[in-house]
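User: Predict the structure for this protein chain, please.
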Amino acid sequence: MSLPRLEDIKLGIIGLGYVGLPLAVEFGKQLPVLGFDINQARVNALESGHDATLEVTDTELKAATQLHFTTSLERLSECNVFMVTVPTPINGQKQPDLTPLIRASETLGKVITQGNIVIYESTVYPGATEEDCVPVIEQVSGLKYNQDFFIGYSPERINPGDKERRVTNIVKVTSGSTPEVADLVDALYRKIITVGTHKASSIRVAEAAKVIENTQRDLNIALVNELAIIFNKLGIDTEEVLEAAGTKWNFLPFRPGLVGGHCIGIDPYYLTYKSQAVGYIPDVILAGRRINSNMGAYVADELVKAMLRKRIHVAGSRILILGLAFKENCPDLRNTRVMDIVEHLDHYGAEVDLHDPWVDAEEARHEYGVELVNTPAAGEYDAILLAVAHHQFKEQGIDTIRGWGKDAHVIYDLKYVLPADQVDMRL
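Assistant: Here is the predicted structure, written as structure tokens:
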């Protein structure tokens, strides 16, 4: 079975979110690309030339002259190489939820033909692509793997909100189900990746490489979160300690905080699931997850203690949280752990307002049932928590932020937005 030639590729990208759209735009500058999504509103917005996630500018969208968008399976069937960029979440039991990936595979099974290649980018545990996705494509299409169609895997490395590290200047790991497919997949990505690629020896190696990237970061943040808890009990400023330790050349510059988003707080569970399935309990990874998962409750408790020390009644108090997005200077709400703080403060009987200049109010309402405050009122709040380091909060400064508080109030700077001597407490 012959593979498509590089110059004859018609690329279909399934999923037009934070991962799929930047890929579609870059490839759409060089070859025919069809972006497919089941969300008609999303497709309509992109066709009008605007990306609500802000990952791609209107100018960049316009520059992708060979990129088109659709919700039509008939149009998708015109492609001969496909990239799958759908999310891979976890369920309520913190186990992998492959539903979006399985549905995308079912969709592909309806449109692929002999000689086609499917490249998965979604983060999974080692083995998932060939053990969970390929059988679905075979069943729906009636085609045979590595005989009639072929598979590639190249894990996404998108960093939402990062305007310096873009898809084109981050080294891309690639792989394929045969040596020839691996070469073609690698050559395809090298058309847009200016800093080069790393061709892994197998799909399983590429899958494992991706899942440990975020597991390692999760563990490093868990360590500094635990250190922050210890230093808080010792009455030592954590930031000062980290700055002092950072004078050594090989000290890693991690900072404590909430671990949300669709990667770091999710991906480790894919690895722990597979590890336990083969009979090994990954104690260190699970311990790190527990620490990071509990940070929202810890922050809420520390804020309440600070209020009580100032003799501020917590029940019935008004608390302003600055930031709802999972990270700074980004509208992404996926798996934001700020909501853990909100829910915990609700248990104390506090009334919580949320202000985030980056987040769409309708999306916040739809995803979490919360109403955003457009402009915080002066002199209204018993406590103010800086939860996300948006540049707007840094620019507003302490005078504006303190102006939102009552005569007696607490300011808790979770992200070191302001100097230590200007706030009541920091993480």
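The mean pLDDT is 94.
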